[in-house]
């Protein structure tokens, strides 16, 4: 499978990924090679990584706790201290072996340790492969507020091994599928049509296509000044929902893809009201996501609390909440202001059975 060329690095797959890693380490003369894992990837992915991928001695393996609730500065401090205690210097390499939480955090740690060391991302979940693998976004949450602290900084390379998908429970695969479906909604109707008709969670060609769609957007707008904003479709309300459920013990904690699936239905409704998305397309979006994702029940109090979180969204400017909406399936527009009265209507539409 051909590699995908991004800004200053490449995304490699399978055997090409193994060869690229071996060649890079052989020529780079790193003083130390560190690997960052969590308890899940240590058990399920590290043995394969060490036996089948990395033909080089590792100086230290650092383990952090998995989960969005551990994606914070406190965890970063622990990893910075581990790097320092193990004599990490500016010629060290950090390999991030894990899902999006780990690669986001590991990339941020590497980008700020000694003012920046090299890092390589090896995403191990479907979500991290199709989303976090491209774009250079690194960072952590501030309390329950998603990705408030971070920098855009590119890895040396990204290595994709679909073998890791075999270690995932179905819920994690479906979560990643939400981002693949999103890529179709914002820029490629034919891709959306293929994905919604057939379960293609682990189809290597479709995974590569999803990465390529995101990469095309990022290449045109690396620092999210314009076009790249379309990648946030479903995320404005979706992130608020994810944060609210994470902080509310009475609500089931949602995976990222589960939250943005709800967000895409809600923002699909806003698209119908404000940008001319057809009613037929709106129903198609709702039906598709509810086929794969469990319905989430929101009370009036839940909705009020979720809407209050919108003020913390990263895309906001001058006090305005900015949305990405769809004019049609495959065509998105950004920086849309939404009248307050439509939010309640959007949730009411989501609740309609």
List keywords for this structure.
11 strands; seven-stranded mixed β-sheet; Rossmann fold; 353 residues; Dehydroquinate synthase-like, alpha domain; 14 helices; alpha/beta
Commentary on this structure:
The chain has 353 residues and is an alpha/beta fold. It has two domains: 164 residues, Rossmann fold, CATH 3.40.50.1970; 182 residues, Up-down Bundle (Dehydroquinate synthase-like, alpha domain), CATH 1.20.1090.10. The strands form three sheets. The chain has a seven-stranded mixed sheet with strand order 1-2-9-6-5-3-4. A two-stranded antiparallel ribbon has the order 7-8. Strand 5, helix 5 and strand 6 form a beta-alpha-beta unit. Helix 6 packs parallel to helix 9 and helix 7 runs parallel beside helix 11. The termini are far apart. 48% of the residues are buried. Catalyzes the conversion of 3-deoxy-D-arabino-heptulosonate 7-phosphate (DAHP) to dehydroquinate (DHQ).
Give the helices and strands, then pairings.
Layout: E1 4-5, E2 10-13, H1 14-28, E3 32-38, H2 39-44, H3 46-53, E4 60-64, H4 73-85, E5 92-98, H5 100-112, E6 118-123, H6 126-132, E7 137-142, E8 145-152, E9 157-160, H7 170-187, H8 189-197, H9 204-220, H10 235-247, H11 256-275, H12 279-292, H13 300-308, E10 323-328, E11 331-336, H14 341-351
Parallel strand pairs: 2-9, 3-4, 3-5, 5-6, 6-9
Antiparallel strand pairs: 1-2, 7-8, 10-11
Helix pairs in contact: 4-5, 5-6, 6-7, 6-9, 7-8, 7-9, 7-11, 10-11, 10-13, 11-12, 11-14
């Amino acid at each position: 499978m051909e590699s995908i060329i991004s800004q200053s690095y490449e995304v490699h797959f399978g055997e090409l990924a193994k060869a690229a890693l071996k060649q890079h380490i052989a020529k780079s003369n790193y003083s130390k090679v560190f690997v960052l894992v969590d308890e899940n990837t240590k058990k399920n992915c590290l043995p394969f990584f060490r036996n089948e991928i990395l033909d080089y001695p590792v100086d230290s393996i650092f383990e952090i706790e998995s989960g969005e609730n551990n994606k914070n500065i406190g965890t970063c401090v622990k990893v910075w201290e581990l790097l320092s205690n193990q004599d990490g210097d500016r010629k060290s390499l950090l390999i991030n072996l894990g899902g999006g939480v780990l690669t986001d955090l590991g990339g941020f740690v590497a980008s700020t340790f000694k003012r920046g060391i090299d890092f390589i991302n090896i995403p191990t979940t479907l979500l991290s492969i199709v989303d976090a693998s491209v774009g250079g976004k690194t960072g952590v949450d501030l309390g329950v507020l998603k990705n408030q602290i971070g920098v855009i900084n590119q890895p040396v390379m990204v290595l994709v091994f679909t073998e890791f998908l075999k270690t995932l429970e179905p819920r994690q695969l479906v979560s990643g599928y939400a981002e693949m479906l999103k890529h179709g909604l914002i820029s490629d109707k034919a891709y959306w049509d293929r994905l919604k008709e057939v379960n293609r969670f682990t189809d290597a060609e479709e995974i590569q296509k999803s990465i390529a769609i995101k990469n095309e957007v990022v290449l045109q707008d690396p620092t999210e000044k314009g076009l790249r904003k379309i990648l946030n479709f479903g995320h404005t309300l979706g992130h608020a929902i994810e944060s609210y459920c994470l902080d509310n013990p009475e609500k089931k904690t949602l995976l990222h893809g589960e939250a943005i699936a709800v967000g895409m239905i809600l923002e699909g409704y806003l698209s119908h009201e404000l940008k001319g998305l057809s009613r037929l397309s709106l129903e198609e979006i709702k039906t598709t996501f509810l086929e794969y994702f469990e319905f989430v029940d929101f009370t009036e109090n839940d909705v009020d609390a979720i809407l209050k979180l919108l003020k913390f969204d990263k895309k906001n400017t001058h006090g305005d909440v900015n949305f990405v909406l769809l004019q049609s399936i495959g065509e998105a527009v950004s920086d849309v202001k939404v009248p307050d009265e439509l939010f309640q209507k959007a949730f009411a539409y989501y609740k309609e059975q």
